[in-house]
């Protein structure tokens, strides 16, 4: 069925690295922009990054720019987030989401269940 | 950067109408999307393009957007509508547009 499944979360020390993955199924992954969105414990949603369908365009929230890298492998129907120089404030559930629509009209019509990243010594 | 402002909480009795606002500078010129998130679950899209409903979302959910305020309206509120609600737009003020979420509103059904 149509779904997104995140993996790769866990406990990491400040300054460490982690790579998240998101496996897509049930739809033509290469047709869609994809995004990572996170939610710190007890807090609201925060957009992290997006990548275009062909990987030509990426963008990042200022809070992660220079530390996180989004990528995708359309042959493997997979989205990734490489997170370096992790900080305590990066602790959150990270959601993978599909963006539907055109340009700045896009909305997130499909979400994964999320993977928890905890940054602590 | 573009800021979206939502009330932290809204309370409503069952069967009544709940209105959740999302304020932003000239938000009426943007396309606003709304998400519902229940505890321990991923967000679910309930309104897109200001007022369109995805399939499977009850007609009780509606949206509007004008001026500096977008509004999510839930008619005949049910206990199952209790959740956090987030508005979302794109900030296209730079060459590289980014996504903006409101801070979220907790809807309590009394």
Description:
The complex is a heterodimer of chains A (121) and B (110). Chain A has 121 residues and is mostly beta strands. Chain A is built from no helices and eleven strands. Chain A is globular, with a radius of gyration of 14 Å. Chain B starts with 8 loop residues before the first strand and ends with a strand. Chain B has 110 residues and is an all-beta fold. The radius of gyration of chain B is 13 Å and the shape is globular. The mean pLDDT of chain B is 96. In chain B, the strands form two sheets. In chain B, strands 1, 3, 4, 7, 8 and 9 form a six-stranded mixed sheet that branches. A three-stranded antiparallel sheet of chain B has the order 2-6-5, with no helix packed on it. In chain B, strand 3 and strand 4 form a beta hairpin. At the A-B interface, strand 5 and strand 10 of A face strand 3, strand 7 and strand 8 of B.
Q: How many H/I helices of chain B?
A: 0
User: Any low-confidence stretches of chain A, pLDDT <50, length ≥5?
Assistant: none
Mean pLDDT of chain B: 96
Order of helices and strands of chain A: EEEEEEEEEEE
Q: What's the shape of chain B?
A: globular
Number of helices of chain A: 0
- Fraction of helical residues of chain A: under 10%
Spatial separation of the terminal alpha carbons of chain B: 36 Å
Report the count of strand segments of chain A: 11
Largest protein interface?
Answer: A-B, 24 and 28 residues
For the biggest sheet of chain A, the summary is: 7 strands, mixed
- Compute the number of strand runs of chain B: 9
Percent strand of chain B: 35-45%
Q: Helix content range of the residues of chain B, please?
A: under 10%
Blueprint of the fold:
The complex is a heterodimer of chains A (121) and B (110).
Chain A: E1 3-7, E2 10-12, E3 18-25, E4 33-39, E5 45-51, E6 58-60, E7 68-73, E8 78-83, E9 92-100, E10 107-111, E11 115-119
Parallel strand pairs in A: 2-11
Antiparallel strand pairs in A: 1-3, 3-8, 4-5, 4-9, 5-6, 7-8, 9-10, 9-11
Chain B: E1 9-12, E2 18-23, E3 33-37, E4 44-47, E5 61-66, E6 69-74, E7 83-91, E8 98-101, E9 105-109
Parallel strand pairs in B: 1-9
Antiparallel strand pairs in B: 2-6, 3-4, 3-7, 5-6, 7-8, 7-9
């Amino acid at each position: 069925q149509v779904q997104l499944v995140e993996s790769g979360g866990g406990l990491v020390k400040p300054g460490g690295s982690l790579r998240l993955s998101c496996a897509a199924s049930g739809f033509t992954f290469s047709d869609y922009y994809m995004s990572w969105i996170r939610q710190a414990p007890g807090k609201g949603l925060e957009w992290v990054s997006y990548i275009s369908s062909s990987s030509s365009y990426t963008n990042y929230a200022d809070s992660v720019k220079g530390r996180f890298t989004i990528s995708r492998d359309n042959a493997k129907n997979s989205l990734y987030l490489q997170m370096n120089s992790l900080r305590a404030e990066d602790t959150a559930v990270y959601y993978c989401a599909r963006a539907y629509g055109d340009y700045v009209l896009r909305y997130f019509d499909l979400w994964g269940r999320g993977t928890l990243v905890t940054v602590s010594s | 950067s573009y800021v979206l402002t939502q009330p932290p909480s809204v309370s409503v009795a069952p069967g009544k109408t709940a209105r959740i606002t999302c304020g932003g500078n000239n938000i009426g010129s943007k396309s606003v999307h709304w998400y519902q998130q229940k505890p321990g679950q991923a967000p679910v899209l309930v309104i897109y393009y200001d007022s369109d409903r995805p399939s499977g979302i009850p007609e009780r959910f509606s949206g509007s957007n004008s001026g500096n305020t977008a509004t999510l309206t839930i008619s005949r509120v049910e206990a199952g509508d209790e959740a956090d609600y987030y508005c979302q737009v794109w900030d296209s003020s730079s060459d590289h547009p980014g996504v903006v979420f409101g801070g979220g509103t907790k809807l309590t059904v009394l």
